[in-house]
Amino acid sequence: EEADKMIASVDVNSDGKISFDEFCVMFGKTEGSGLREAVSKRHGELQKIKGAVGEHSYSEEEKWAFTQHFNFTFEEDKYLTSKGLVPMEPDSMEMFANISDGIMLAKFINLAKKDTLDERALNYPKKRALNKWEKTENLNVVINSAKAIGCTVVNLHASDLETSAGKEYLVLGLLWQLVKIQLLSLINIKECPELVKLLEEDEELADLLALPAESILLRWINYHMVKQECSRRAKNFTKDLKDGEIYANLLHSITPELAECDKDTLMASTGRDRAAGVIDAASAQGVRSIIQPSDIVKGSKRLNLAFCAQIFNNNHGLGELTEEEKELLRVGLPDDAEGDAREERVFRMWMNSLNLQDGNLYINNLFDGCLCDGLYLLEAEDKVEPGSVEWKKVQKKKKGKALHKLMAVQNCNQVVDVGKDLKCSLVGIGGVDINSNNRKLILALVWQLMRKQVLKLLVGPDGKEKAETDVLKWANAAVKDLLAKELPERSPVKDPSDEEEVAARDAADSLLGGAKKIKNFTDSSMSNGLFLLNVVKTLKPEAVDPTLVLPGTDEEEAKQNLRYFLTLARAMDAQIFCTWEDLFEVRKKMVFI
């Protein structure tokens, strides 16, 4: 009852939920209520720091864990080890200093999502330390690449990563998202087809495909609980794992032959001793864990999730596929699954970038039912065109309960009406299509909202929004003007007396000089990346390193050029969600955006 009153005092939209900002307000009013003590007990050792708007806290345990994870990850990286950047002391603040130039974070992003950025495009210290502008370029690449692979980045700027004092909580928030993406990247049907064994009765493969990795991980744990005839089930990564019993059964199920994983031996102890035994058992399996016994006992959600993912990635213990399961995968995976998945991913990353629900919403899959009540789509429309949604007419959830179908359809009808007001082409699309999770129509709507937002950024001096044809004309005209300039203006070199540098510049200039114009956003000539590099040069001629420009005559060379282009664009603070594959295949929507 007391908690309900505290929530009601700050819950301005009366939906039964509070945002982080509302929680902070509530937390500030709770002196003597016991809430502060409860939070402290729940999250363990927190370091308090003073910020511009008050005090913030960050977890020492998480700092220790992420430092250790970077140590394990980069122990064989020649650059980072030669510079003495790893290993780092987990109990120190070294990590914040060592990531401040963006190089370690950029490398980690590429490990989290392969080929996200081109590390050759980063600024590296040579005869001198990097200056502020060079660091900022690297950190812009980091932030925009992090957004492109699914991180929600709110109120975090390059300057916060460069000098993190007072902003450690924001930096750790980004690091956790990157670590999570890396550790969960293998927990999907494509990377691990054995997950098909987790299908439950009356489920289709599409149901499993729609589950976020965290849910799949819990289902995997419970699969082993059934296998071990254990009555316990994991419903979360906090209290259900605190006593170590589920861990003991999980590890024993995966490697029953290992003495260290004997569940009876593990269960003979309690508390921290059992937690320490669990970590030792995982180590015997080959897991280099970043969790400590106290993290298990305290029920640290993030670190338990990371630990479970580490165990899965090391050995999931699901066994080999049967012929029946192989056939199910063959007929059950949708056609063009990879291409469709990339398009869905781009639109999902864009929605996540809108800071929906005050930054507290992260959409794992556009088709998992999260859009069926229309609420998030209405909020997205209101972000694209503030004031476009009449919120008084919107049916809201009460205390987190799902809306009745009729109310959900009513919201979805308003989504369509607002979309039409925004001049989206929604012929043949009704609210019932959104409510019934029609994939094709949902993608069509989200794409048009994304396109609308991009075009709004290109409003001319006359106040009129630009069209796609205007963007095409601008790109062609800008490249034409660039190529009309004489050397060295169109392709400057740092040292005109360096014959090798001048020769490399001339070779690259010859290649780029052939990429003069594109007919449209499906022009196949763009697939080699040369025209796009010219577009970058129209904004910053010295940005393109001529030694990194390739002819692009085969897929590998084109890939290098396109990854280089994406990295340069992000260094210039462009927010791009597509992948090099989208550009190589010249997907019209992705090329335009």
Describe the structure.
The protein has 593 residues and is mostly helical. It contains 29 helices and two strands. The chain has helices at residues 2-10, 20-28, 35-43, 60-73, 78-82, 94-98, 103-112, 132-148, 158-162, 168-184, 205-209, 213-227, 245-254, 263-267, 271-285, 293-298, 301-314, 323-332, 337-352, 375-384, 405-421, 431-435, 439-456, 468-484, 499-513, 530-539, 555-571, 580-584, 588-592; strands spanning 46-51, 54-59. The chain has a two-stranded antiparallel ribbon. It is globular. Residues 36-44 and 50-54 have low confidence and may be disordered.
The helicity comes to 40-55%
Low-confidence parts, pLDDT < 50 over ≥5 residues? 36-44, 50-54
**Strand composition percent:** under 5%
Contiguous helical run count: 29
Largest sheet, spatial ordering of strands: 1-2
- Overall radius of gyration: 26 Å
Arithmetic mean pLDDT: 89
Largest sheet, strands/sense/barrel: 2 strands, antiparallel
Question: What secondary-structure arrangement, pairings included, does this model have?
Answer:
Elements: H1 2-10, H2 20-28, H3 35-43, E1 46-51, E2 54-59, H4 60-73, H5 78-82, H6 94-98, H7 103-112, H8 132-148, H9 158-162, H10 168-184, H11 205-209, H12 213-227, H13 245-254, H14 263-267, H15 271-285, H16 293-298, H17 301-314, H18 323-332, H19 337-352, H20 375-384, H21 405-421, H22 431-435, H23 439-456, H24 468-484, H25 499-513, H26 530-539, H27 555-571, H28 580-584, H29 588-592
Antiparallel strand pairs: 1-2
Helix pairs in contact: 1-2, 4-10, 7-8, 7-10, 8-27, 10-17, 12-13, 19-23, 20-21, 20-23, 24-26, 26-27
